[in-house]
Amino acid sequence: MPRETGDVPSPGPRTGGLVAVLAVLALPAAAAAQSTRVQVSFDRDEMAADETATLVVRIDAPETPDSIEWPKGAPFEVLSRSESRQSSFSLGGGAGVQMRQTVVYQLTVQPRKTGNLEFPPVMVNVRGKRASSEPARIRVLPAGARPRPQVPQQQPSLPGFPPGFGPQAGGGAWRGWEKDLRLEVELDRKQAWVGQQVTATVWLLSPVGVVAYEGYKPPAYDGFWTEEVETPQTLDFKLRTIDGVPYRAYLLQRLALFPTRSGDLELGPYEIKVAVRVGTDSPFDPFPEVRSARRKSEPVTISVKPLPPGAPRGFESVNVGALKLEATTSETAVPAGQPVTVKVVARGEANVRALSLPKLPDIPGVRRFEPTAADQVAPKGTRLTGSRTLETVLVPEKAGDLVVPALSWPVFDPVAGKYEVLRTSPLTVKVLPGAAVAAAPVAGTNALTAGLRPIRADGALRPVAPPPWRGPLYLAVLGLPVVGWMGAAVALRVRERSAATAGARRTRAAGRMARRRLGAARRLLVRGERERFLAEVERALGGFAADRLGAPVAGLTRDELAATLVRSGATPPAVKALSAALEACDAARYGRGGADPHALLAEAERALALLDQSDWAPGRAA
Q1: Is the separation of the CB atoms in 547 and 509 below 8 Å?
Q2: Can you name the residues that pair with 411 across neighbouring β-strands?
Q3: CA-to-CA distance for 40 and 433, rounded, in angstroms?
Q4: CB 3.0-4.6 Å disulfide test: which of 139, 352, 386, 607 passes with 578?
């Protein structure tokens, strides 16, 4: 009988059997769709203690897990963790459309110890039901060991997991970048003389891009003097091919090593912790895969030869290198008592900070102050070059020619392998007659003041007198010559008495003037005007001596001044104190240092006090 439109056919025997078979087959799929599976695996089965590994945790569940219980007390340190999620749909027969959530965690871990380690199971809660993984195992070798290379292999799929997922999936079975990532030290020579430069270059060789590094730890440079030649501030690389493998070579540091003793000296290992980018180098990758690792270089040995016998007299072992020596003066002509600077400069390729330059000898009639040294290091390529300058201040005390003798400097040339003596030419400075320091006027005063007499204003105004012939004074006018003669006699007597007491007045005035100048010097010191302070102290001391002697002290050397003071009645302690104060002023001005200014001021006041107690006789100065 024909069927009407809208009728639902009843299942026949064959149809009903097919439905029953499909329902039976759908039961395992529905059950699988409701189960939760957790798997934990390492990206390899062997590693070194100073390396990192990737731990992959995969959770396949019907929905997002309610919670994840990470194990505690695992023998690993988690350095970083990333997470990815994926949803999938399937037809589950009578159950309809089934949805599953796949969550993958990638943990970068580092072992805390060596041996066969185990990462405990991970627990997951989904809809009130718990599921756990099997523990993951890995063998950890001592630091610096090279794990055997691992060959990628296809692992069998686990029940209910996509094909290819297994202990080696998700992390790349072959970790070539870790095997080829290394720290190397490159030397420009393996043999050297004592004091000869050896350039050590530290390279980080990596087959992948380096993101950053930290924890750079150089060795103890036992037996070496070290100087930095180059340390890049940015991570730049150049491509190098080593044994057919392309590398990115990152320069970490370049050093100049100067051996300080002979023998086989070992340069210990360098250490570093680096972070590298694996996969792609694109800066636009929103989820870059960054791994970290620690590396240590192999020790290297340098054979250091002792310097040959037969060194010239005066040779010092630090003077090794390709060097040149020169000497110059700051002036070609100076007045007596004024300073002139002699510069001795050594230039070349050497350990310039350690060079021992020749010093100037004593020169008769010239005061010499302690020299000062200045270094200028200028690396050139991979070599350390520069200069060392020794400056010595000389103060000639007499007019004439100041001759600085030629200097000789024995050095060792490591390239030629022999000693040589470098020499400078003699230097001549013309010394002109000097000017008196005490006669210099004080800044801000009139130099003619000392030669002006005061205006007399003691005369009284009187009315015009009547003609002499009209007054009683006429007779007095007639007697004026007699009165003039008598006045001249009185004036002569007064002048003689004034000359007799001039020494005492000048002595009292000299003390007051010197103390006023010391007071002005103290105020200059408070304001920080060091040069004016020293000049004021010198004027106080020199002016006091000139006033007490009654004669200028221009052109006198210290010894001549001391002898003149003693002949004039100054006591030896007073002369010694004055000389010490003047010497301290010169040392503070020309010697780049000298005594403490307050102590110098106290020394000057003490010298004036002792000079005041002397029995002066200016007439004996000649």
Answers
A1: yes
A2: 420
A3: 97
A4: 607
CATH no., domain 32-172: 2.60.40
The contacts of residue 100 (CB under 8 Å, 6+ apart) are 33, 60, 61, 62, 87, 88, 89, 90
Between CA 512 and CA 61 the distance in angstroms is 105
From residue 61, alpha-carbon distances to 75, 91, 133 in Å are 28, 16, 13
Instruction: Name residues whose C-beta falls within 8 Å of residue 281's C-beta, 6 or more positions apart in sequence.
Output: 208, 209
Phi, psi (rounded to 5 degrees) for 187: -110, 140
Domain 321-432 classification at class level: mainly beta
Residue-wise pLDDT for 335-385, tens only, equals: 998 999 999 999 999 999 999 999 999 999 899 999 999 999 988 888 999
The fold adopted by the segment(s) 178-305 is Immunoglobulin-like (2.60.40)
In whole angstroms, give the CA distance from residue 421 to residue 314: 10
How is residue 220 written in tokens?
């103890």
Chain center to CA of 381: 21
Edge to edge, what strands does the sheet with 427-432 contain?
333-335, 427-432, 400-404
**pLDDT given at position 243:** 79
Q: pLDDT by residue (tens digit) across 424-473?
A: 999 999 999 875 443 444 445 454 544 555 565 555 666 666 666 666 66
DSSP run (H or E) holding 602:
helix 597-612
The number of CA neighbours under 13 Å toward the Cβ of 481 is 1
For tokens 């040589």, what's the residue?
420
Q: At what angle do helices 530-549 and 572-590 cross, to 10 degrees?
A: 150
**How far apart, in whole angstroms, are the C-alpha atoms of residue 513 and residue 438?**
12
DSSP for residue 619: G
* DSSP state string for 29-51: HHHHHH--EEEEEES-SEEETTS
- 464 contact partners, CB below 8 Å, separation of at least 6: none
For 496, the token pair is 């003689």
Predicted confidence (pLDDT) per residue in 60-86, tens digit = 888 888 889 999 888 998 887 878 777
User: Which structure tokens are listed for 243?
Assistant: 């044994």
DSSP E strands, 498-544: none
Amino acid at 83: E
Nearest to 376 by CA among 389, 395, 357: 389
Residues in the chain: 622
Q: Does this model's pTM top 0.85? A: no
**CA 315 remoteness from chain centre:** 31
The pair of structure tokens assigned to 86 is 């994926």
Residue 405 CB partners (closer than 8 Å, separation 6+): 361, 363, 426
**pLDDT higher than threshold 70 for residue 149:** no
Letter for the amino acid at 228? E
According to DSSP, the β-strands at 209-217 and 333-335 are unpaired
How far, in Å, CA of 9 to CA of 3, rounded? 9
Name the residue with tokens 């230039």: 347
